[in-house]
Each structure stands twice: as structure tokens, then as C-alpha cells.
């Protein structure tokens, strides 16, 4: 199987392996002719003294622009983190003054999920980064590709809702889920602090609702740890419609 020129750069750095093929079914309600979005899962990994990398992402058979956006994003983010982690690790080694470090190596792990409706393919990238400390961090990124136009759409286009409407649904759902249904006896001061985090993280502006996916007639918004609640609450996934 030939590798596209764009991926030659990746192949020169990592060992690429197409480990599986899949077909992502689309919603048939708008079109009686069944569509499908087939893709391969690309995986590459690398082990260095200071960093272990394991990345998986989809490569679609019929959408090179979508593939390029996904691969460009992954490669750019990895390049930045790799440079940062090398400098950070060297500083740790120098500080310890013993030539090597016994600390756990840094980690960079990317996994993905795919979903769709009759118009849009959604890809959710989940990147786990560990660079020391008590725990790692999770970063989310989504791509929502409109098949007919070949363009990437925002949440207003995908949902037909305004940011105020989306914000209202998210905030009310989070109030109920995290505060009203809490069984731990959260004191009023903590409730107020959590409510403030929700109001800030789900404020009706574009930047707060960039992470979303579609699945048939449903649309989900995702909030990373720390965006609407403390780290211990994890990722928040809210069904908007």
C-alpha cells in the first residue's frame, strides 16, 4: 500500500502500522441511499529515555482534507511537546546531578472516537500528557467535517442553535449533575465555587464550545478537566440536543 506524500514525514520518524479498518455508518433519514465513511486506524509509537509516545488516529478513505487536518494537528502538537519534554527532562537530570533520572518518563498518548450523521463526520481526539507531578492532563480536540461542502463546521452550524441556547442547556445540566444531585454533602461555599466555574466555563462564547461531536440526531459538548469543575470530576459530556 502506498503512503501519501504528506505522511512520508511521519514514516521517517515513526514506524507506521495500519492496524484495523472500520466503517462509520451515516444517518439515513435524509437520504435513502446508504452512505458510509470508511477509515483505517493509524498507530505509531516511540520510546525515548525521557518520553514514551503512543498515538492512534483515523485516516479516511475519501477525505484527504480531513486526514490532513487531523495529521497536521497531531504532528504539530507532538513536535511542540517533544521539544518541551526534552528540555524539561534535561533540566531535571542536571538538577539531580546524577546523569540520569529515576522519575517516571513523560507520556504522550492520543486516542480517538468517531461518530457521524448524514451530513457531518465527527472525530474526537483525546490526548493524555504526563510531564511529572501528581497526575497527567487530558486535552480534547474535535473535528467536525461537513461532507457535502468539504468544510469544517462550528457548533452553531451543526446544531442550529445559538451560543446562548447551547450555554443554557449546558449550564442547567451541569448544575443538576454536579451540584443538585451531589450526595457527598457539599457545603454551600463549595457549591457556590463550583457554580462559578460552570458559569465561566460554559459562558456563551465560541471558545467554550469548540469541543463537540454529532451522532445521528444527537449533539454532545465536551468540557475538559478544570474547565467547568475540578480535575477530580473528570471530563464532562453534555447532550445538547
Describe the model.
- This protein has 241 residues and is an alpha+beta fold.
- The chain contains 5 helices and 10 strands.
- Strands 1-2-3-4-5-6-7 form a 7-stranded mixed sheet, covered by helices on one side. A 3-stranded antiparallel sheet has the order 8-9-10.
- The protein starts with 7 loop residues before the first helix and ends with a strand.
- Mean pLDDT is 87; it is low at 1-16 and 26-34.
Largest sheet, spatial ordering of strands: 1-2-3-4-5-6-7
* Average pLDDT level: 87
Q: Which runs of at least 5 residues are low in confidence (pLDDT < 50)?
A: 1-16, 26-34
> Cα-atom Rg, whole angstroms?
21 Å
Q: What coarse outline follows from CA principal-axis ratios?
A: flat
**What multimeric state do the chains show?**
single chain
- Beta-strand percentage range: 25-35%
Spatial separation of the terminal alpha carbons: 41 Å
Given helix and strand content, the structural type is alpha+beta
Spell out the helices and strands N to C: HEEEHEEEEHHHEEE
Helicity level: 25-40%
What kind of sheet is the major sheet? Answer: 7 strands, mixed
Amino acid at each position: 500500500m502506498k503512503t501519501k506524500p504528506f505522511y512520508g514525514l511521519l514514516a521517517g520518524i515513526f514506524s507506521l502500522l495500519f492496524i484495523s479498518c472500520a466503517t462509520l455508518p451515516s444517518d439515513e433519514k435524509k437520504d435513502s441511499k446508504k452512505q458510509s465513511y470508511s477509515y483505517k486506524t493509524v498507530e505509531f509509537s516511540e520510546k525515548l529515555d525521557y518520553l514514551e509516545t503512543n498515538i492512534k488516529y483515523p485516516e479516511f478513505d475519501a477525505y484527504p482534507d480531513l486526514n490532513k487536518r487531523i495529521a497536521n494537528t497531531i504532528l504539530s502538537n507532538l513536535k511542540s511537546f517533544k521539544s518541551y519534554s526534552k528540555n524539561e527532562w534535561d533540566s531535571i537530570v542536571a538538577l539531580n546531578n546524577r546523569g540520569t533520572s529515576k522519575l517516571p518518563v513523560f507520556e504522550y498518548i492520543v486516542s480517538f472516537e468517531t461518530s457521524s450523521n448524514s451530513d457531518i463526520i465527527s472525530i474526537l481526539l483525546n490526548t493524555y500528557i504526563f510531564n511529572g507531578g501528581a497526575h497527567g492532563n487530558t486535552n480534547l480536540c474535535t473535528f467536525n467535517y461537513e461532507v457535502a461542502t468539504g468544510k469544517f463546521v462550528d457548533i452553531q452550524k451543526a446544531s442550529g442553535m445559538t451560543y446562548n441556547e447551547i450555554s443554557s442547556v449546558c449550564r442547567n445540566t451541569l448544575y443538576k449533575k454536579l451540584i443538585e444531585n451531589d450526595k457527598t454533602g457539599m457545603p454551600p461555599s463549595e457549591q457556590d465555587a463550583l457554580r462559578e466555574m460552570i458559569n465561566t466555563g460554559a459562558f456563551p462564547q465560541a471558545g467554550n464550545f469548540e469541543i463537540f461531536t454529532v451522532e445521528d440526531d444527537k449533539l454532545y459538548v465536551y468540557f475538559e478537566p478544570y474547565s467547568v469543575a475540578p480535575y477530580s470530576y473528570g471530563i464532562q459530556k453534555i447532550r445538547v440536543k
